[in-house]
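If you are new to this repository, start here. Below is one unmodified record pulled from the training split, so you can see the exact layout before writing a loader.
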Amino acid sequence: MTQKIYDLIIVGGGPGGLAAAIYGARSRLSTLLIEKGAPGGQAATTEDMENYPGFARGTTGPDLMQAFTDHAKSFGAEIVRGEAANIDMENKVVQTKAGETYTGKTIILAPGAVPRKLNIPGEAAFTGKGVSYCATCDADFYEDLDVIVLGNGDAAVEEAGYLTKFANSVTIVVIHDEGILDAAPMLQERAFNNPKIKWIWNSTLAEIKGDALVNGVVVKNIKTNELTEMPIDGVFIYVGTVPQTDFLKESGLELDERGYIIANEQMETNIDGVYAVGDARVKYLRQVVTAAADGAIAAFAAEKYIVEEEGFKNSVLDEKLPVAVTFWSPMVEKAVEMSPMIETTLGRFSDQLKLVKMDTYRNQRVARRYDVTKNPTIVFFHKGEVVATIEEDDITEESIAETVAKITAKA
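And here is the target side for that same chain:
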């Protein structure tokens, strides 16, 4: 039995992956989403979801993610349980740890990232019940309460400042000597001048305590090993995040030094037809709303990629006659001026070759693939291969005629 080839395979079912599934399936792309657990990712573990546009207080993360899931399924997206182990990026084949294989025309990677954990007593038990890894998400739950922030990098210090808008006091626990932080100087200055921020130096957290909710912590001085209990209403931990990209490290995909996927504003990675969305990619803000936006953009880009690639394959690479592809842009004056001459000259040979015009702005990927850097450029193909190229200043009636004669003589 021939294996189904999906238009779009999405690896990861957080808000970015689910949004991509919604947009992909709604665009009539055959869409498969592979998720190792219940759809929703970290957002599905958040008790309250109050900052997603259009959803007021009382909305839970699980409810919102179930709505995402139902929405994707309503358009025909398939969702299967599985954990990606290997991906053949060139051929767009995903293999899971259980041994299933799925083939697609495009892939959207949404593996997510998880906060780096301390793995101390109480941390797991009180996650979502007083332990948080996101001030932007949860700060307003601590209005007029006292909270602790662990960490001293940019995220910790910046989020501590954000918390002071809500909390009665914010105590930052720093592993370094007094006055030493890893955050940017501007953030340090702002924090040191904030009257709501207190400091505990040379320390870390040894335990988080509570009943139904967090009500205290045990602070450990790393120089003296002294343990000190203190009452507290909330704990915010910022010791980094870990992108879930280990399975991609040998795939040829470009990652940064921390393991995050590098992608542009169209969510394109360094591999054609492969996109990255959500918390696992290099980005400024990691929130449900930004992950959903990533997913929408990636699905849109994937659809355009398929149209572009299949159109180019059908009209150029699979054509039996030689094909002259004119790469041009209506935004380039010289290309506009030369276009009539190029079309007229090539038109004289319409019984011997096919003429195709491609806007370099709309077909940037194809232009890059064939090293088109000048506008206009004529690239001649035969049987799927480039057989000649004429660039900009070299394009004349004579050069076109000579090139066509050489190509058709061999055809």
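Two things worth knowing about this chain: The two ends are 38 Å apart (CA to CA). Residues 288-317 form the longest helix (30 residues).
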